[in-house]
Amino acid sequence: MEDIVYKNLDQTSFFQTLQKGTVPSLKKILTEERINTCNIDAGGGLQYNYAALPVDEKIIAALQDLSDEQQLIPKYDALLMGERMNTGEDRMVLHHLTRGDFDRPVEEDGRNLRDFYMSQLEKIRTFTEKIHSGKIAGSSGKKFTDVVQIGIGGSDLGPRALYLALTGCCEQHLHAHFISNVDPDDAATILKGLPLESTLFILVSKSGTTQETLTNQQLVYHYIEEHAPGIDPSGHMIAVTSQSSPLAGSSDFLESFYIDDYIGGRYSSTSAVGGTLLSLCFGYRNFSALLEGAHQADMLARSSGITSNAALLDALIGAYLGNVLGYRVSAILPYSQALVRFPAHLQQLDMESNGKQVNRFGQPVNYHTGPVIFGEPGTNGQHSFYQLLHQGTEKILLQFIGFRTNQQNIDQQIDGFSSRQKLNANLAAQIVAFALGKQDVDPNKNFPGDRPSSLLYGEALTPQSLGALLAHFENKVMFQGFLWNINSFDQEGVQLGKVLAKQILAGTDDPLLKTYASILGL
Amino acid sequence: MEDIVYKNLDQTSFFQTLQKGTVPSLKKILTEERINTCNIDAGGGLQYNYAALPVDEKIIAALQDLSDEQQLIPKYDALLMGERMNTGEDRMVLHHLTRGDFDRPVEEDGRNLRDFYMSQLEKIRTFTEKIHSGKIAGSSGKKFTDVVQIGIGGSDLGPRALYLALTGCCEQHLHAHFISNVDPDDAATILKGLPLESTLFILVSKSGTTQETLTNQQLVYHYIEEHAPGIDPSGHMIAVTSQSSPLAGSSDFLESFYIDDYIGGRYSSTSAVGGTLLSLCFGYRNFSALLEGAHQADMLARSSGITSNAALLDALIGAYLGNVLGYRVSAILPYSQALVRFPAHLQQLDMESNGKQVNRFGQPVNYHTGPVIFGEPGTNGQHSFYQLLHQGTEKILLQFIGFRTNQQNIDQQIDGFSSRQKLNANLAAQIVAFALGKQDVDPNKNFPGDRPSSLLYGEALTPQSLGALLAHFENKVMFQGFLWNINSFDQEGVQLGKVLAKQILAGTDDPLLKTYASILGL
Description:
homodimer, alpha/beta, Rossmann fold, six-stranded mixed sheet, five-stranded parallel sheet, globular
């Protein structure tokens, strides 16, 4: 393995090269041939198309050199082999191992960590089979029909996005609900509609100390005691946590599933954090297919040639647009209602990973790092914020996602076309509209064009393609972190607010905290 | 009335003054006294607090001068009195009239337009009472229990956000569902869970030509025919449209409610577009209280003194941060789970209104206009994108929203504090954490601070405070449009995509459209 050197983006020679180059206009370079050739297998049946991004052969060559100079692939390899890439917390980064094997085992104290994740998978498989068969039932004997994930951040956003993405294409054993916010109105709204006798709760907290989640656990206990006094709460609650957490091994739970410190919250959808819920709802087989899709994407992300590595190229072009051309915001635009909360998951994944101002050695960096991420499904977004995307004064990088077929079967021809045809005609039209624009004598109807976008697309949104989609963005974010020389795997920025909130509850003397608390009724 | 002059922001003398000034540090100016005094009544029981925004007396004075020079209040007055402020489409802008009276009636062809909106309100009141009493029932005689709003953009986002905001605090007559996307999986997911015999559908399209909405109407018809052949669809569907639309007066509907061209889609929540749904779900009385709160905010927004006009000051400081200090993104952060989709509504409201590049005369402007808007409820967001807000390299203007009390009553003390106390302690803590930051010897744990935020807060989220909240942002967006000298009331930027999508369906010869369509299975 070559020696790995960590340096800032602005210390690389090829970054200088990129800043000097000229930017090709999409109006000139976008051709039929380009659409057909700028296409990369992204795993799980997905393709990544980058035809409508302003990169020509010269820029691609410079990005390849940059990738090589920043050793993006060797760094990914090192991560896969157990290098402690989460420097601040001195931890390995092993979410890739939750869905597949690589060259050689990652061990700790003689323990094979892939085996550990596999053992939890096996536990999930047997447990969910017992739930589905009714062998494990509610404390009054009723078969479980509903499941509630109690968790926040990574324990909520990823699992929720994936759940919603799969309800239309997988046979459903249990229906899921989510309680995340410490705002008690969140739990109140969910709890009042639940059949408590047949509801299973999953308490998800890696540390076992998350304020919101522990509070909501207690709220649920009290609610069950009050509204279904015959029910034994411990027979209706399972835990997903780490083995070192205060929750581990507690008799408060029907069963516990484990992750470890090497699976970051926002990267935990393919661990027991997502796997328990998704297996309960759709069966272990479907969760397993999701893992397979993710692993395919992980394997493809190992290619050092950037035009055969979708996640790597996506990362490099994103950084080029961000750091050289001034794009500070990225919109995620899935033309699939099932992906309605996928942008919210990517918002955490990207902004919590790369919203950093110091490099991995703790030194301030002199360039922009992670972008702002937002998005809504198309065509809904077209009737909302696309006005600004087409004619506003901001530079926004667009990431479209689309599928050739529906998940469900109520589609039919209306006015000569199916809804699916209308949906995808809109998607195709938007890419071209953004790229080419349109001159009009009325300046208010003028579209400047040259607004770049990429397209991830496939036959259908299935567990497998969803797994690849998830892993694509995880790997993209990781590569951008390497490019910027930052640690994408910690989140020190979330601590200060927690500390001050505790001070307020403890009765702080700080006049500012006290005054804000006071106007908010505390 | 003084003569109104329209000029670009960069032609004003006080904009030059602002660019030369120095920016005060929040670390220096934020005091207990400032928090107590920088507070404005925003209507409906809401207060707007701007203590944690980097404006001192000098800047406030310059912003007042700028407001006067750009004649923001005279322009608002002119709009209220029926000036054709939507220049591109040559239309009046009358959504304020849907919720209250002003100095003198706005007439068109001798018709009082406030009377027209009132007549529709009265029609809504009597119709919903008949639905609630069961006098009007489903075609098989069942009392209506569920209602589905079929609409997209302004016919969806605002009504949906308001519906979700009120479910926790209002007695509920009917439960609402929403079908918006032309993706058939959207309708499929909603329809399969509905009790069709007791479901009422509201078709909402001002023009009566919205592709998505008409397609979904037909999809729903087919679905009813297939799954509930005994039901007469026309007895289960009402329309909200304009009197000039092809839908108006159709016998396909049980009843029709009207708006007109002077109510823009994204400003239509307080018209029949939102009013029919909200009155059906929560009773006319609650919708009426929402209108009252909105009208209070509208009246307060007429004050020409900027420190007694919350919407105006919010607009001016936002533009100051955007155009002078480089803030291009604004995050909406409600510490209220009931406001879960309110940021998505504001995303349309703001980005579709002010995402413009030409002024009201069609000339390109040389400055940034509307910002990118995104947001999620706290504390959820704290576990997602707050890392970037605290330690990222972007400048983001934060708008917090909070309430002293819950909507629902399952809260209780856990570990010594109620969930509400924990929620609001977090909110107070975040404002201070963003403003002051924290020095740490470990640069990775260093918080630079001086990250500005405002706070809209009140006793509780009720129909009245919600109405004021909605109107606050509508008026803020309007004032920013006047500041930038743009037309905030059209949306020409959404047209090109629609035109190209139609070309694809019609079998275009354009090679780019054809190729993208082809890889998407068309």
